């Protein structure tokens, strides 16, 4: 089962980095408005945490009226959850995250130790390195407004017992397997600051220049706003009037009938 979930994508070994390569600018700024996030289920038995934040995408009435920061962050699905990556990606999308890059990787112990160098004096460091280098991980570059903070909020606290107690709908509370307070098998990694995001993204994707993604994001927002939202709004209005027994199936068929 584990093999079927990710081996078809292939894995690569992270190459040695060129330490002389200067980091490039990663965060960019654009004006965005707000839309409501929508809830959903990926299975018939498990409700997923997709209502943790609004998803701002469109220009419009913005309560704060200020500039909104479109950021990137590094996200990692740890080995214990790699087989569920498609389910996790559904949660990412429903929370408004744009996947810029994705790689299935096998880290060496040295690479895992370098990634978590700031924890090198912690008593759990060796176990963390062993855990991250034992099986494939899935690495993402995600983009969204206030992406670093929003991803941290979605995955929850690093300590799984605390996440289960205080944030039971966070991803770590749902999928983390760590029994104690150590942040080892807590299912996910997320950059804890914009500076850390820049450093970690360059570690995995040294040739990537994310400052060039601003135009792509702006084009995507404009396309959704101008081409998709009028049709979606019309369909939702009709569905509200008809109130079908199976709204999702009705709306899907309504969209298919209009290409």
UniProtKB/TrEMBL annotation:
<keyword id="KW-0067">ATP-binding</keyword>
<keyword id="KW-0479">Metal-binding</keyword>
<protein>
    <recommendedName>
        <fullName>Nucleoside diphosphate kinase-like domain-containing protein</fullName>
    </recommendedName>
</protein>
<comment type="similarity">
    <text>Belongs to the NDK family.</text>
</comment>
<keyword id="KW-0460">Magnesium</keyword>
<keyword id="KW-0963">Cytoplasm</keyword>
<dbReference type="Pfam" id="PF05186">
    <property type="entry name" value="Dpy-30"/>
</dbReference>
<feature type="domain" description="Nucleoside diphosphate kinase-like">
    <location>
        <begin position="70"/>
        <end position="212"/>
    </location>
</feature>
<dbReference type="GO" id="GO:0006183">
    <property type="term" value="P:GTP biosynthetic process"/>
</dbReference>
<dbReference type="Pfam" id="PF00334">
    <property type="entry name" value="NDK"/>
</dbReference>
<keyword id="KW-0546">Nucleotide metabolism</keyword>
<dbReference type="GO" id="GO:0006228">
    <property type="term" value="P:UTP biosynthetic process"/>
</dbReference>
<dbReference type="InterPro" id="IPR034907">
    <property type="entry name" value="NDK-like_dom"/>
</dbReference>
<dbReference type="InterPro" id="IPR023005">
    <property type="entry name" value="Nucleoside_diP_kinase_AS"/>
</dbReference>
<dbReference type="InterPro" id="IPR007858">
    <property type="entry name" value="Dpy-30_motif"/>
</dbReference>
<dbReference type="InterPro" id="IPR001564">
    <property type="entry name" value="Nucleoside_diP_kinase"/>
</dbReference>
<keyword id="KW-0418">Kinase</keyword>
<keyword id="KW-0547">Nucleotide-binding</keyword>
<dbReference type="GO" id="GO:0004550">
    <property type="term" value="F:nucleoside diphosphate kinase activity"/>
</dbReference>
<feature type="compositionally biased region" description="Low complexity">
    <location>
        <begin position="20"/>
        <end position="30"/>
    </location>
</feature>
<dbReference type="GO" id="GO:0005524">
    <property type="term" value="F:ATP binding"/>
</dbReference>
<dbReference type="InterPro" id="IPR036850">
    <property type="entry name" value="NDK-like_dom_sf"/>
</dbReference>
<keyword id="KW-0808">Transferase</keyword>
<dbReference type="GO" id="GO:0046872">
    <property type="term" value="F:metal ion binding"/>
</dbReference>
<dbReference type="GO" id="GO:0006241">
    <property type="term" value="P:CTP biosynthetic process"/>
</dbReference>
<feature type="region of interest" description="Disordered">
    <location>
        <begin position="1"/>
        <end position="45"/>
    </location>
</feature>
């Amino acid at each position: 089962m584990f093999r079927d979930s990710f081996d078809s994508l292939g894995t690569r070994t992270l190459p040695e980095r060129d330490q002389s390569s200067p980091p490039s600018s990663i965060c960019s700024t654009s004006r965005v408005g707000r839309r409501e996030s929508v809830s959903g289920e990926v299975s018939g038995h498990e409700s997923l945490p997709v209502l943790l934040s609004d998803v701002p995408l469109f220009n419009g009435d913005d309560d704060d009226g200020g500039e909104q920061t479109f950021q990137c962050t590094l996200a990692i699905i740890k080995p214990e959850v790699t087989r569920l990556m498609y389910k996790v990606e559904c949660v990412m999308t429903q929370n408004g995250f744009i996947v810029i890059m994705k790689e299935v990787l096998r880290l060496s112990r040295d690479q895992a130790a370098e990634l978590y160098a700031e924890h090198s004096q912690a008593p759990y460091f060796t176990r963390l390195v062993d855990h991250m280098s034992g099986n494939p991980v899935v690495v993402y570059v995600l983009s969204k407004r206030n992406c670093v903070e929003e991803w941290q909020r979605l995955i929850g606290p690093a300590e799984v017992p605390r996440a289960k107690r205080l944030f039971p709908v966070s991803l770590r509370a749902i999928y983390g397997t760590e029994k104690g307070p150590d942040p080892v098998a807590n299912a996910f990694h997320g950059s804890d600051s914009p500076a850390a995001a820049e450093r970690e993204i360059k570690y995995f994707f040294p040739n990537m220049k994310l400052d060039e993604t601003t135009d792509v994001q702006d084009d995507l927002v404009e396309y959704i706003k101008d081409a998709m939202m009028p049709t979606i709004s019309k369909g939702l209005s009709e569905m509200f009037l008809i109130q079908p027994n199976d709204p999702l199936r009705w709306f899907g068929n309504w969209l298919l009938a209009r290409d």
